[in-house]
Amino acid sequence: VLGLTVPTDPQWVRAALRELSPTLIDHAHCELKAASNALSLVTRYPDDTPLVTALTALAREELEHFDQAMRLLSARGLTLGIPAVNQYAQRLRSIAATLPQRHIERLVLVDRLLVGAVIEARSCERFKLLADALSGTSATSAQPDVELGQFYQELFICEARHYRTYVDLAKLAARAGVNGGSNADTDAMVEARLRELAMREGEIIRELSNNMHRAMIHG
Ligand SMILES: [Fe+2]
Ligand SMILES: [Fe+2]
Q: Which ligand has the shortest distance to the CA of 127?
């Protein structure tokens, strides 16, 4: 799925559905963080109009998802609470600094956008697993919940689009400032960087699932 190198262990879906309340709470936090991460990039790169426009729209959608997730929580009598430490995102963000330096323009921004892309890809993969399990179309569906399944189905489509937005913005960022050299060459470098990050993301997912205490959307 979307360049991910390690597929999610089927155990994850079982754990996520077994502890549905913590999963929904964690998911709500993820949507809020997705919105605030997009807005922090807008604040950081205010002169980049294509980036500002695309990420403002993306943040609006993430906030909409957060709102939907909050409605699900309150319908179940749950509150948002303080988020658990998100090791996945923390580690993923620090990885970029450990990758070999590349001659890519605006590499810091490109990496931040590509990390965003990888997180979207993983969300997309897992929302699809939840959607299938909840709608009763996969082997893991113990107790189908068609409405919740539909919710994850819609989100899965959105997150796939967000993945594409982040990759496209990373390519645009890398192209800006490149004199000579073709766009195709620059795009190829960005795609190679994305593959490097996806490899490392796979290692994180493997490690986190080995020490899984409970299912988190990214853990
Ligand atoms: Fe979202
Ligand atoms: Fe998203």
A: 1
Q: Which residue has the tokens 């490392």?
A: 200
Amino acid at 92: L
Helices (H) and strands (E) in the chain, counts: 7, 0
User: Closest-lying ligand to the alpha carbon of 31?
Assistant: 1
User: Could you tell me the pTM of the whole model?
Assistant: 0.93
Which ligand has an atom closest to residue 64 CA? 1
CA of 154 to the centre of ligand 1 (A): 10
Centroid of ligand 2 to alpha carbon of 70 (angstroms): 16
- Report yes or no: 51 and 165 within 8 Å, Cβ to Cβ: no
d(CA 100, ligand 2 centre) in Å: 27
Per-residue pLDDT of the chain (219 residues; tens, 9 = 90+): 899 999 999 889 999 999 999 999 999 999 999 999 999 999 999 999 999 999 999 999 999 999 999 999 999 999 999 988 888 988 998 988 888 887 878 899 999 999 999 999 999 999 999 999 998 777 665 678 889 999 999 999 999 999 999 999 999 999 986 766 788 989 999 999 999 999 999 999 998 887 666 668 786
